[in-house]
Please model this.
Amino acid sequence: MQLKIAQVVGLNTDQKAAQVVSQVQDSENAFLALLQLTSDDAFTKGRQALSELADFYFDFEGSPAQKLTATFAEGVKKFSEEGEWDLCLAGVSGKVLYLTGQGQVEVFLKREDKLSPLLATASEGQLISGFLEDGDKLLLVSRSLSNFLGEDLDKSLDLSKDLWEEEISSKVGGAEAGEGGMAGLFVQVDQEAKIEEENEAVFPSLQEEKVIASRTKAILLGLIRVFPKFFPKSGRGRLILALILILIIGTGAGLKYKSSKDAQKQAIFVQILQSAKDDFDAAKGLSSLNPAEAKNKLESAKASIDKALALKKDDQEAQSLKKQIEEQSASVLEQQKVADFPLFLDLDLIKKDFKAQKMSLSAGKILVLDSFQYSLAVIDPVKKSNQILAGKSQLGEVSLASLNGSMAFSYSLDKGLVRTDTANQKQTQVAKADDGLGSILDMSGFAGNVYLLDGSGQIWKYLPTADSYSDKREYLSKNTKADFTNALRMQIESSVYVLKQGGEIIRFTKGEKDNFSYSGLPSPVKDPKSFFVSSDTDNLYLLDSGNSRLLVLTKLGAYKVQYQSERLGGFSDLVVDEKGKKVYLLDGSKIYTMDLK
Model:
């Protein structure tokens, strides 16, 4: 039995560290350990202690169970004088796994498609054991890393050793320091004899070739031995015999050539089929860890299986794999079909013929504006209640509105910027009408400030003062130039995002252009209508109307998942409640909902 081992360690400090150790003395015996330690100089102490425990395990005389029990007792003795500690030990002897642990540590076994937590039913310090099988994946992991990975932990165990280490290291490297020390030890179980068995299966026709050549040689030698007795004396007889010999030799050579070609074709077929399997398994494992790479692996698997079937179109294993790839492509690419969009609210219930083009969400409330009737209303999704806040007499010919906490901000050419308190419907002037503004395309409230998106290439910012608001200030730095021509929407979550027609999203942080680029999309963005991102969301949501889909991206533009439905091409705006797993979609006089998976 061969053990392939990978490890990930990260976010350690001098006071709190998570570490692992693995030692394999031969193919039959291995020692694995994971430690979380909180104390002064935790990293150095932990590393030294794990090294000493490994030596203790292999030096101790006794059965594997006795060795692991004694080593665990030695570990408890070492750490009892330190601060907080969590320890997991494992020993492998032949095909048998021995486990014990205490504290915030977990061990998972992935066998085929089933994930099993091995320490879940064991008491602390209890020794458990079981048999390992070819293809098993074992993970010793700190509770901090297990919680951090969440649902991705199961999928990560579909990856190969090298891919697991690469992907999990990348995720841990991007985690916040406050997550605490994290560590994981990944073990992939393989049979050493597997390679030899595969080689025999890959080249079966080579054995046939040897048999054919041997038989041909035997026939020729037999003929040579009897030639002196039966060799024809006439010229015609000799010619006939020569032709027979040439035919025999040619037939043998032809069979040998055909066998060689068959063997070569079989070897290529098996290699391509295995490549398709490996890429498909990798795609499934990467689907949520790295969607862009999952897409690449899936495309590679599709190309490989097509090549394999071109060589052997009737091969059942290849046909079965192609069917699996086709059936599971949508789930690998995190593509969700949506059939149900329940009606949440008919805006006629707020006011007759009330219609809106945009919505705003903050503090669990939704703000809607009818820019034809100049009516502003707030909706409470939990209580399913609504209230008109103000109309034309207070807000003027209002064209834009945004909600920030309990304050609703609105903009009109005739009355400028107005703040409305949703609690008492009281209005406060933020800024009077300003001829110095260009074409205001959108607005947003954030952290008490008000931002106006000016089509002339600037974002204006108004700051609250002791009794009012400041004059407009330029948000973009002097060296930052931006083209807001055809801008559709602006959203703020510490960074400012601007969506333009065609799908381009520009991101600014502290007035400077910042990184944002699409990556890993199943297909390019086409005719988007709106998007949503806030400080309360982990993701950015893009209503890609031209493709009738809702894209879920990271805040830097990396693809995560998409929801597809013809109806998604008809909505004009959206807001997202991630905690409640709800998307609210606006279609003129009605708001619909969609569930997030």
The radius of gyration is 35 Å. The chain has a mean pLDDT of 87. Residues 235-286 form the longest helix (52 residues). The CA atoms of residues 63 and 587 lie 71 Å apart.
